[in-house]
Amino acid sequence: MTICEESVLCVDIGNTNVRFGLVSGTRVKDCQTLFTEDLIANPKEFIRLLPRELKATAFCSVVPAADKIVHDALRAITPNPFRLTHNNCGNLPIRYPTPELIGQDRLANSLAAKRLYGTPAIVIDVGTAATFDIVSSEGGYEGGVIVPGPQVFIDCLTERAALLPRVTLPETPLTEAIGRSTSEAMALGLVHGFPAMILGILEKVKFALGIIEDGESEVILTGGGAFRVGEIATKNDPDLTLKGIALAFQDQDST
User: Fold this and answer.
1) Mean pLDDT over residues 138-148, rounded?
2) Which candidate in 67, 72, 105, 125 is catalytic?
3) CATH number at residue 108
4) How far is CA 26 from CA 1, 4, 22, 30, in A?
5) 224-233 residue pLDDT tens
6) What is the pLDDT of residues 31-86, one digit of tens each?
């Protein structure tokens, strides 16, 4: 398929971050990120950062409180902002029994995986939650798995255990196996345990798909926390969601 080269301003409203950038074909440029809670509290900053004089805007959201803010901001640029839903996600077949309940970002990821990388594909998006989305060659979107993301694991420990401190996730690799302080023990539990959990789920999903050998499927990693499990993927595409939004827009725009 020939992908339209005209830039589309795409916005992905996630639970923690709002990420937006210009998508032209398979290229994404001028990406910016805001905390979702900051967008809701101060929409003017988001509006100030948006480019102008565009012919197309599109978005997806999993945060209802931010929907109207973003829609109205995009409508000030283009008359009819496109919102990705299960009804307009390109040529992605959906075998899931309740498609209206699938996160719009997950549909965007699955469409982009199918079109850009081929099937069968497993998309792992690591953010507030870590989601697995399975796209088969026969049925399209099949479903997935959802687990807490890295920071949520740490936050849950802090909230449920009175004596555990609040810990910031380390940005550099930890090589120790044994923590010498409570904070270090918590960080090590996540640094070593989270990738092991992701790998264990991935093995189960591959088995369910009948994938025996490496290379029989694409494992595509995306999301703000993807660097923590990067070694398990065949592809790492931080812009996958934005590309999926643009692909869905281009499909409906060409019909």
Assistant:
1) 92
2) 105
3) 3.30.420.40
4) 12, 9, 10, 14
5) 877 777 677 7
6) 999 999 999 999 999 999 999 889 999 999 999 999 999 999 999 999 999 999 99
Give the torsion through C-alpha atoms of 54, 39, 75, 91, to 10 deg.
80
- Return d(Cα 60, Cα 241) in angstroms, integer: 9
Strands of 140-148's sheet in order across: 140-148, 129-136, 121-126, 218-222, 235-236
Does residue 105 carry a catalytic annotation? yes
Query: What separation in angstroms does the CA of 196 have from each of 173, 181, 193, 214, 231?
Result: 15, 22, 5, 18, 11
Query: DSSP string of 44-80?
Result: HHHHHHS--S-S-EEEEES-HHHHHHHHHHHHTTSSS
Q: What is the greatest pairwise CA distance in the chain?
A: 61
Other CB atoms within a 10 A radius of the CB of residue 171 amount to 7
Query: pTM to 2 decimals?
Result: 0.89
Q: Which amino acid is at 162?
A: A
Domain membership of residue 249 (yes or no) is yes
Q: Quick check: is 220 in a domain?
A: yes
- Given this model, what pLDDT does residue 175 score? 75
Q: Is 161 inside a domain boundary? A: no
Contact criterion met (CB below 8 Å) for 94 and 138 = no
Q: Indicate the number of domains in the chain.
A: 1
Nearest to 248 by CA among 91, 22, 23, 29: 91
pLDDT tens profile 196-222: 999 999 999 988 888 755 667 789 999
Structure token pair of residue 214: 């490496």
Residue 1's pLDDT band (boundaries 50, 70, 90)? Answer: very low
* pLDDT above 60 for 255: no
List the domain range (segments joined by +) for residue 14: 8-148+195-253
- Is residue 199 situated within a structural domain? yes
